[in-house]
């Protein structure tokens, strides 16, 4: 076996121990740090924005343009139907809506008891369509948390 003399400036593989400049940067640690920052931002952004307390100034401004007329159709827990607080039969909804509609762009607001069957709601919507109502909204109760 031959033994080689290893110079102090050489390692076992024969390369100089003085490192040459790297040709490329290792981006893996940079990407890891950026992903962690993005995750932290995603988690904290909604928390920060939901706790902003702002006292808005009071200004005098012109009145808002009038909104289209709204017709209220309510169905109570007993299944009775009311158009603008007047009780009507299921078959008469279309005529009652036409009579109550003063504006072409009238909106129908449905206040329907949660126990009402879907079949009844479908029949009400069918009658509303016959009356020419094109705008519809469901009114519900908002529970504060």
Structural description of this entry:
Strands 3-2-1-4-5 form a five-stranded mixed sheet, with helices on one face. The model has no long low-confidence stretch (mean pLDDT 77). The protein is built from three helices and five strands; from the N terminus they run αβββαβαβ. The chain has 145 residues and is an alpha/beta fold. The longest helix is centred in the first third of the chain and has 22 residues, at 28-49. It has a domain at 70-138: Nucleotidyltransferase, domain 5, CATH 3.30.420.270.
Q: CATH topology of the domain at 70-138, which one?
A: Nucleotidyltransferase, domain 5
User: In percent, how helical is the residue content?
Assistant: 25-40%
Counting helices, strands and paired strands, the structural category is: alpha/beta
Please, what is the average pLDDT?
A: 77
Order of helices and strands: HEEEHEHE
Q: Which sheet architecture does the biggest sheet show?
A: 5 strands, mixed
Shape: elongated
In CATH, what is the class of the domain at 70-138? Alpha Beta
Number of strands: 5
Please report the number of helical segments.
3
Question: Between the first and last Cα atoms, what is the distance in angstroms?
Answer: 83 Å
């Amino acid at each position: 076996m031959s033994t080689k003399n290893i110079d102090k400036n050489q390692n076992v593989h024969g390369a100089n121990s003085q490192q040459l400049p790297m040709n490329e940067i290792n981006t893996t640690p940079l990407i890891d740090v950026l992903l962690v920052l993005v995750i932290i931002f995603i988690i904290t952004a909604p928390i920060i924005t939901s706790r902003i307390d702002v006292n808005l100034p009071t200004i005098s401004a012109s009145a808002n343009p009038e909104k289209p007329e709204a017709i209220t159709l309510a169905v109570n827990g007993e299944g009775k139907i009311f158009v603008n607080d007047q009780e009507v039969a299921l078959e008469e909804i279309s005529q009652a809506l036409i009579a109550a509609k003063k504006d072409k762009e009238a909106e129908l607001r449905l206040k329907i008891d949660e126990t009402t069957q879907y079949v009844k709601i479908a029949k009400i919507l069918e009658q509303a369509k016959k009356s020419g109502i094109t705008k519809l909204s469901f009114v519900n109760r908002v529970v504060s948390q």
